[in-house]
């Protein structure tokens, strides 16, 4: 049983955080610090896009056309910040061997967020969202290759953040006018756009994350907020776990009082037993915070939550042995 974080962290000191995650969790990750300009998850994903240019408008990122030569100043700044972060990772992770996770916004959440050049979301155009997914897939391949080059001993794990996919599937994403919603996407259609990302870990903090869509897309793992899950979602997780998909169980709340390890572990242990799942499978669970920790009140508070993960591992491990 192992631990990791889900990406975002408070503050703006990338050196402090890369040093911390290499020490505090079993699966270190490249931190996202949204307190910095261009440090949020969307900007990081725009930074890795290939063959698509984008600029930052008051309402958010907007595609402006194709070709890296037309990348805006904002996109170039996002890319420069990512390269600076990789420089620090290379320095601090010198000699590191083992798993190393990087996070990128998934294609559906990007499509539901990015504007097209002439307005409305990329989600509205089937061809545009297919092109976006391909540009993201190509950029992710280059990004992962860069990480492996800088940290040769790393077994790189890709996490795709898809907080927007439940709304896409439900037809709940508003159009530009705000008077209607974009047409819903069915399960097979959702899987199609995810297919260029085989073996990714999919992260979705929703009450009913689309586990079946993720597993059909080839997910190696699914990351969820355990406190939000419905009974139906747990049924899907049980099926996925028995098929070999790793559960990244979000057990530590991102705000409020830091709980006792036994209290934090209890929902996972209880549901595992209620579902009649093999206790041995629980040993394969990765323990995480409930979501990103950018909303934590301070870096010290976020570090305390990451430290708690290992104590939860001990509690869950004892329950699996019982």
Percent range of helical residues:
40-55%
Low-confidence stretches: none
Structural class: alpha/beta
Number of helices: 12
Please tell me how large the radius of gyration is: 19 Å
Overview of the molecule:
- This protein has 322 residues and is α/β, with parallel strands linked by helices.
- It has one domain: Alpha-Beta Barrel (TIM Barrel), CATH 3.20.20.210.
- Helices cover 44% and strands 16% of the residues.
- The chain contains 12 helices and 9 strands.
- The chain has helices at residues 14-24, 41-48, 73-92, 107-111, 126-150, 165-170, 187-194, 211-216, 231-242, 261-274, 279-282, 299-321; strands spanning 2-3, 52-57, 60-66, 98-105, 154-161, 201-203, 221-225, 246-252, 286-289.
- Strands 1-9-8-7-6-5-4 form a 7-stranded parallel β-sheet. Strands 2-3 form a two-stranded antiparallel sheet.
- A hairpin with a 2-residue loop joins strand 2 and strand 3.
- Helix 1 (14-24) packs across helix 3 and helix 2 crosses helix 3 (73-92).
- The protein is globular.
- The chain starts with a strand and ends with a helix.
- The mean pLDDT is 93.
Which keywords apply here?
322 residues; alpha/beta; TIM Barrel; seven-stranded parallel beta sheet; 12 helices; 9 strands
Describe the structure concisely for a colleague.
The chain has 322 residues and is α/β, with parallel strands linked by helices.
Protein topology:
Blueprint: E1 2-3, H1 14-24, H2 41-48, E2 52-57, E3 60-66, H3 73-92, E4 98-105, H4 107-111, H5 126-150, E5 154-161, H6 165-170, H7 187-194, E6 201-203, H8 211-216, E7 221-225, H9 231-242, E8 246-252, H10 261-274, H11 279-282, E9 286-289, H12 299-321
């Amino acid at each position: 049983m192992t631990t990791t974080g889900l990406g975002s962290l408070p503050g703006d000191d990338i050196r402090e955080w890369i040093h911390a995650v290499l020490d505090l969790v079993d699966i270190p990750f490249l931190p996202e610090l949204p307190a910095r300009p261009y440090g949020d998850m969307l900007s990081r994903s725009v930074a890795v896009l290939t063959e698509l240019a984008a600029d930052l408008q008051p309402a958010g990122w907007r595609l402006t056309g194709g070709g890296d030569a037309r990348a805006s100043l904002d996109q170039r700044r996002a890319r420069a910040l990512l390269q600076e972060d990789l420089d620090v990772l290379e320095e601090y992770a010198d000699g590191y061997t083992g798993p190393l996770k990087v996070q990128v916004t998934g294609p559906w959440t990007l499509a539901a967020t990015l504007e097209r050049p002439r307005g409305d979301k990329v989600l509205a155009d089937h061809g545009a969202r297919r092109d976006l997914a391909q540009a993201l897939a190509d950029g992710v391949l280059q990004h992962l290759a860069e990480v492996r080059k800088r940290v040769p001993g790393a077994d790189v794990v890709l996490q795709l953040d898809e907080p927007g996919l439940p709304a896409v599937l439900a037809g709940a994403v508003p159009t530009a006018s705000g008077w209607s919603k974009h047409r819903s996407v069915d399960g097979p259609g959702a899987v199609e756009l995810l297919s260029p990302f085989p073996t990714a870990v999919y992260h979705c903090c929703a009450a009913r994350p689309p586990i079946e869509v993720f597993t059909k897309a080839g997910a190696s793992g699914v990351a969820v907020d355990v406190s939000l899950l419905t009974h139906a979602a747990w049924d899907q997780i049980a099926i996925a776990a028995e098929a070999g998909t790793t559960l990244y169980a979000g057990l530590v709340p991102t705000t409020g009082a830091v709980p006792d390890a036994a209290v934090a572990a209890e929902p996972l242990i209880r549901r595992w037993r209620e579902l009649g799942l093999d206790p041995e499978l629980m040993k394969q669970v990765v323990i995480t915070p409930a979501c990103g920790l950018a909303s934590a009140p301070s870096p010290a508070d976020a570090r305390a939550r990451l430290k708690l993960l290992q104590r939860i591992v001990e509690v869950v491990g004892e329950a699996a042995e019982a």
